[in-house]
Each structure stands twice: as C-alpha cells, then as structure tokens.
Amino acid sequence: MVKNLQDTTTLHNGVKMPWFGIGVFKVEEGPELVHAVRAAIKNGYRSIDTAAIYGNEEGVGQGIREGIQEAGITREDLFVTSKVWNADLGYESTIQAYEISLKKLGLDYLDLYLIHWPVEGKYKEAWRALETLYKAGKIKAIGVSNFQTHHLEELMKDAEIKPMVNQVEYHPRLTQKKVQTFCQEHGIQLEAWSPLMQGQLLNNEVLAEIATKYNKSVAQVILRWDLQNGVVTIPKSTKEHRIIENANVFDFELTKEDMERIDDLNQNHRVGPDPDNFDF
C-alpha cells in the first residue's frame, strides 16, 4: 500500500518514480503557474509533469528553483517529466526538442521524457532518439504517452529499450483495462493523466456515496482508486488548498467492493483525443 506522498514505484530500469505528482496541463506561464509548482513542492510533492506543447516549461522551471529553495531540498529529490510534441517527432528533431525543453526548464537532465502521442510512421525514430539520450545519461527514464496496446507492440518490435512508463488518459469512465494488463505484463508503469476527467466526475452519485462513507471528497476517492490500481497519478491544480487536499489520500483504503463499484463506472469515454484517430 502506498503510504505517503514521497512513496515511489521502481521502474524496470531501477529508477524510483513517485506514485503521486502534480500536472500543469493548460496552465499558462505566469505567477499562478510558478506559485502552483512552488506550493506543490512546499507541501511534499516530489513529481512535476509538463510538456513542450503546454508552453509553460520556463514557468515550471522557475517554480522548481523557488520550490527547492523554499523546501530546503535538492534537484535530485524531484522527479521532473516533459514530453516531445508531435511536430518534433524524428531522430534529430526529437534530440533538439529535448535540449530546448531542458533549456527552458533550466535543468541539467530530466527524470522522464515521453513521446506525447503515437504519430504513425514517426514515433519509432523518436524512440531511437530517446534511447540515444537515455544511453548518454541525459534522461533517467524514457517512456510514451497515449500509446494503445498495438502501438506498444509495434514500438517494441524494434526498440532496444522498452518504455518504462506509459502515460494515458485514465479515470473511472475510461479504465483502459487492456492497456493496463499489457503494461503490467511487460513491466511498463501506467500513469494517469486527467484522473479527475477534467472535473466531470465530481458530481457522480456513486462516487459521492463512496466519498461520504470515507469522509473524503470525490476527487480523493478517485485518486485513491488510481493508487490502489497500481497507477501513478498526476492531478492538476493551481490552488494551494486543492493541491494539499488532492494529496490527502494516504490515510484510508477503499474496500474491494468499492474498487469494483468504481470500475463498473467505465464507459470507455474519453475527454481527450482518441490516440488512433487524433488529427495531428
């Protein structure tokens, strides 16, 4: 059982990744972003997830520097993730995109670098670039995002190194059982983006009933469900009180019956694009 905010899962290459982190999808550059990252670090978060396409890596970097100083920790205590965007997929362009992200973040290395989407005909070259960067010691771990089972199978046909992480849309309306089973069988850590379905689940009656039983919020119940399913989770928030509340999920455990009730909410419903039909 995951016991606290600093608890980690060990990736198949031995790197330790926090089970819980903060995401900054669609948070614009500016004081709000810097404050959110600082607040997360101050309140015990050790994982920060961004991406080139979010357009906020500089602010994230500033928040990291200020947060480290405020919390009295070191860069090595953090786990920082970014992602290469579709337009940059390709061997040389992926390496260049990585260097640009690193410069914007003001960091010497990334803990995890992901291919953001499985663009057909491009992701294998991008993966080769990630392998090169990884072998050169510039990234602690490499992985993918939004890859379905068939994408992973195709990638692994030619890959020297299999992905350490697959970050996918994952919430009670989209449980991705097939992808999760495949990842478990191959030692790939599943990670959830949009775990709260962009707020669309917060008024769900079943979840509200379960939340009342545990004296928790619906958000806390969903995030606890993620963890008990062995899925790393990175809820997004810019409000400090919400950042604190989201992480208050280590003092209770959902029963098997409640886990199954949440599983039964699945409708294979996405709030984000379908990886097989994304108009890039």
From TrEMBL:
Which InterPro entries would you find in this protein's record? AKR (IPR020471), AKR5G (IPR044500), Aldo/ket_reductase_CS (IPR018170), NAD(P)_OxRdtase_dom_sf (IPR036812), NADP_OxRdtase_dom (IPR023210)
* Record's keyword annotation contains Oxidoreductase: yes
Specify which residues bind substrate according to the UniProt entry for this protein. 116
Q: Which Gene3D superfamilies match?
A: NADP-dependent oxidoreductase domain (3.20.20.100)
Q: Where is this site: Lowers pKa of active site Tyr?
A: 83
Does the record bear Signal in its keywords? no
Q: Which residues form the active site?
A: 54
Where's the NADP-dependent oxidoreductase domain? 32-266
According to the lineage, what is the superkingdom?
Answer: Bacteria
| GO MF term set | oxidoreductase activity
Sorted UniProt keywords: Oxidoreductase
Family classification? Belongs to the aldo/keto reductase family.
Annotated protein name in UniProt: Glyoxal reductase
From what organism does this protein derive? Heyndrickxia oleronia
